[in-house]
Amino acid sequence: MNGKVALVTGGSRGIGRNIAKVLAGEGYNVAITYNSNEELAKEVVKELEHSGVKAACFKANISIKDQVDNLIREIEKELGSVCVLVNNAGITKDNLLIRMSEDDWDSVMDVNLKGAFLTTKAVARGMMKKRYGKIINISSVVGVMGNAGQGNYSASKAGLIGFTKSMARELASRGIRVNAVAPGFIRTDMTDSLKEEVKEAMLLNIPLGYFAESEEVSNLVAFLASEKSDYITGQVIQIDGGMNI
């Protein structure tokens, strides 16, 4: 077991939960954040501990600086300094431009983009002292190609790509690698609830002809977190079955 500490924001459900599980399987002690469902977060912690690692969950609104700073202090006390950060937390509030409220725009940008800025800034100092760290930002294929009805979400994920590239340049001299993963349609509880005709329409745009499982994204994240990817930084890796060829 490697004993390194990984922080996965939004790690209590969906892709984040699976990323946390795969990292725990690789020997990382894992901290996850959650927004409201403490019971579910504690359930994830127990699941992670079955891998023989330390795990902990923390309630935090990652768009608020004081909460993020306190989060990192608590993780350092309980698990140690973070060497892998996975900026996974994100929300959607989809609507067409003319129907989208300012609050819907602001809340998505706050969580998806400002949250990544705050968590990255909070862990960067410790990584710089160690002259090593891995930061993996979970973007989206719509951040690359756009999507009608998701102007706020697409903009936040595109912003995350620009942030990734800038931080890769800024932090490389301190031994910190920063990359982004841009998933396409990933099978989760949320996507499983979509109507069949919606799923069929989406499949027409995927050359491989099927939806990915969360494990496929998680395995890529685990690779980027490992020393096997030490010469990779500033990259945006699409895992979308060919949606954006």
Number of domains: 1
Strand content range: 15-25%
Number of helices: 9
- Quote the CATH topology: Rossmann fold
Task: Characterise the protein shown here.
The protein is α/β, with parallel strands linked by helices and 245 residues long. The chain has one domain: Rossmann fold (3-Layer(aba) Sandwich). The chain has helices at residues 14-25, 38-49, 65-78, 102-130, 142-145, 151-171, 189-192, 196-203, 214-225, and strands at 5-8, 29-34, 55-59, 82-87, 133-138, 176-183, 186-187, 212-213, 236-239. A 7-stranded parallel β-sheet has the order 3-2-1-4-5-6-9, with helices on both faces. It has a two-stranded parallel sheet with strand order 7-8. Helix 1 runs parallel beside helix 2 and helix 1 packs across helix 9 (214-225). The chain is globular, with a radius of gyration of 17 Å.
